[in-house]
């Protein structure tokens, strides 16, 4: 059984763009017929937080694209969800705004998101399935395996190496 999500308060100095979005959202919050606070809180919890690894050798815009794709595969983002604005991403990650725009254009070209002038960039379609969602049996089994590996004394690099080796056996040539 998966434990319920916990909501912890966000500090303005830690996530300035998130606090701004949250305060703006709460000021204009209306609950149309058929919706309610739970749906709106669920939408707020789907804000994606980009992490850029300058040492990875992967272009920054590609990292952004890959992170959005991963969020779509895992069900973190769903159709209709709004991506952070370029300005919000720049404030959170200190990267060039043109890099963010390039990543968003790439996602738009692939049909995953849609830019709506004056409104933002929204998810058009998901890449996920029931097998990759947060509550999937496969995820649960993988989490159990990860616990066993850590209990056996394996570190992150050891687990990564083992995973890559087994993946290569099952997907040769990739």
TrEMBL record:
Alphabetized InterPro entries for the sequence:
Tscrpt_reg_HTH_GntR (IPR000524), WH-like_DNA-bd_sf (IPR036388), WH_DNA-bd_sf (IPR036390)
Which SMART domains does this one have? HTH_GNTR (SM00345)
Molecular function GO labels: DNA binding; DNA-binding transcription factor activity
Can you tell me which residues the record assigns to a coiled coil?
Answer: none
Question: Looking at the Swiss-Prot or TrEMBL record, what is one Pfam family this protein matches?
Answer: GntR
Q: Carries keyword Kinase?
A: no
Q: What are the UniProt keywords, alphabetically?
A: DNA-binding, Transcription, Transcription regulation
Protein name as annotated: GntR family transcriptional regulator
Sequence ranges assigned to domain HTH gntR-type in this UniProt record: 58-126
Q: Does the keyword Transcription regulation apply?
A: yes
User: Which species does the entry assign this protein to?
Assistant: Allokutzneria albata
